[in-house]
Amino acid sequence: MPKKSIRDIPLAGKRVFTRVDFNVPLNDRGEISDDTRIRAGLPTIHFLLDSGAAVIVATHLGRPKGKVQDSLRLDAVAARLSELLGREVKKTGEVVGEEVTRAAAALQPGEVLLLENVRFHPGEEKNDPELARAYASLADVFVSDAFGTAHRAHASNVGIAYYLPAVAGLLMEAEIANLEKALHDPERPLVAIVGGSKIADKIGVLKNFAGTVDSLLLGGGMANTFLKAKGYNLGRSLVEEDKLVAAAELLRLATYNNVNLCLPVDLVVAKDQDDPHPRVVTVESVPGDAMALDIGPRTREIFASVIREAGTVLWNGPLGVFEKEQFAAGTFAVAEAVAEAGAFSIVGGGDVVAAVEKAGVAGKISHLSTGGGATLEFWEGRELPGIAVLAEREGAGK
Predict the structure, then answer these.
(1) Mean pLDDT, rounded, for 19-23
(2) In the chain, where are the structural domains located?
(3) I want to staple 72 with a disulfide (CB 3.0 to 4.6 A). Which of 25, 31, 44, 62 is the partner?
(4) Is it true that domain 178-379 has CATH number 3.40.50.1820?
(5) Do the domains at 6-171 and 178-379 have one common CATH topology?
(6) Predicted confidence (pLDDT) per residue in 52-108, tens digit
(7) CATH assignment of 6-171?
(8) CB-CB contact of 229 with 248 (8 Å)
């Protein structure tokens, strides 16, 4: 059943506690080096302000583990949000407490208040009910717009929903709609591309894909483990020896379900990531002193041919060490193939989103998911706690 969003409720005169994901990267000087996540939250904040609400914004930054770290304070976030909104953003020096209570009570419609980094409070990641009630006491409505943390049950995105009416923001609404469409009502053929370095954190989604997609394209370091499970010698390549049995089981599952599982047929190898002289070899002839760091040109062609026929494409994880120019060609070639395919496409995970942006084709992807772990768990078929607590559109409560 669809979740209620801010489009479905009255907002004028309400104080709205809005959980966003402004976990932006900072440089050595404490300056924001990429404000993409802040920009992604702007439509929801603008909608709330235009609807006559007073907006209390909450986010985490980094991993302070329940302790105040001055380097992870949100002053830079408040300044950038103020610039982007074109209006003052007030900021508290605490997560909750008397200062916050006073600031929230004084907030007028059309004004924005940013709370300090919620992960400074030890109760945030424990989903502490007392902290959740403190958050709820500040507002009339809870709006969840932080899809990137929807797989975590924390006080500011799950606990608070038990004390306030809880609805989705525009970003959360778009994430749910696009991911559900791709998983439950896809245009066929449905093609999933999975890369990254390790199988370990993606076994769940690989099992789901091996039973639901039409084609599954595997690259990156994780493909090495599958290749070794098939009997190939990968030299010094990253291989998860403890996942060889799991890889073999996934290969059998894909075969049983008639899923076209494509592994690399050639690889770009080198002595290490800094080797300026990589070479292309077949998977049968990886030298003993070399490691696989990208998919080869023949594999790129095979992957592109499958992608061209797709109705829907889901992609998580780069297909090589794309940060290094000599090992970026595979990921960029696949990014271009997805962009040109004309299919409904979703790219999820920070690394691969960065890759499609670097390849210059982000504007041709149907949906760039802001979730990493959240997107993977959604694709596994799990119910995410940050979505489960939101009110259902047809009036059945939370």
Answers:
(1) 97
(2) 6-171, 178-379
(3) 62
(4) no
(5) yes
(6) 999 999 999 999 999 999 999 999 999 999 999 999 999 999 999 999 999 999 999
(7) 3.40.50.1260
(8) yes
Catalytic machinery residues: 37, 198, 350, 373
154-189 pLDDT, tens digit each: 999 999 999 999 999 999 999 999 999 998 899 999
CB 369 within 8 A of CB 347: yes
272: left (phi over 0), alpha (psi -120 to 50) or beta: beta
Q: What span, in angstroms and rounded, lies between the C-alpha atoms of 302 and 199?
A: 22
